[in-house]
Each structure stands twice: as C-alpha cells, then as structure tokens.
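User: quick one, sequence for these tokens?
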C-alpha cells in the first residue's frame, strides 16, 4: 500500500499557478479622453446615486390578477410596457387633482371602492 506522500495528486486539486502576466500600464490619459467622449452627458440634477431619475422613488402596486391582465392588454395595444402605462396614468391623475380649480370631486362609485379597500386592509 502506498504511503500518503506517494499517492497520485488528486484530480480535483487546486489548479496550477499561472506565470505572472505583464504588468498593466499605469494611467493612460488618451484612454480617459476616449471614454469620456463616448459617455453620455449627465442630465442636470443627476448624481451617481440617483442617475437620470433625480429624486424619483419606486412604488409597488398590488392589483387583482384580472386587472393585471387588463393592464398588460391595454399596454400591448398601445405599444408600451405595463409599468410605463401605469406611471403615465398616475401622473395624468395627479395633474388632474392638482388643477387650479382644486381636486376632482369624489363620485359615489369611487367612494364605495375606497370603502371596500379600507375594509380589505383591516382584515
């Protein structure tokens, strides 16, 4: 029986070390200039953390399955994404609510829907 040191090396051992490659060059101002020319200009108000969205935030919407399908179908008919369509609708509604004449009046049907939503949240 072969001793511990006399066995063949494991097939699953660490890979052999590669020879050190050439050193990377230090700073290349021409490359920096080239990359800066290719980069899109930053939008006003954009920062590294916010990017092109400025102070925008993400909100999650919970919709019933039938409404999600309806939203997808309408978005597809209009050639846009469901998220973009929902954002457009919310912004349109906020513009209506912020009208110089004041917010839109609440209809009886809308008041009933709001009451149902409040009851569902309490459960």
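Assistant:
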């Amino acid at each position: 029986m072969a001793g511990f040191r006399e066995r063949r090396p494991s097939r699953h051992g660490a890979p052999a070390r590669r020879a050190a490659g050439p050193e990377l060059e230090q700073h290349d101002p021409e490359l920096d200039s080239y990359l800066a020319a290719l980069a899109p200009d930053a939008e006003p108000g954009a920062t590294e953390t916010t990017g092109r969205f400025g102070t925008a935030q993400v909100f999650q919407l919970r919709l019933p399955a039938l409404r999600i399908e309806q939203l997808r179908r309408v978005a597809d008919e209009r050639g846009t994404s469901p998220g973009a369509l929902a954002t457009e609708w919310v912004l349109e509604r906020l513009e209506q609510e912020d009208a110089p004449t004041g917010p839109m009046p609440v209809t009886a049907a809308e008041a009933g829907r709001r009451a149902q939503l409040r009851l569902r949240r309490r459960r």
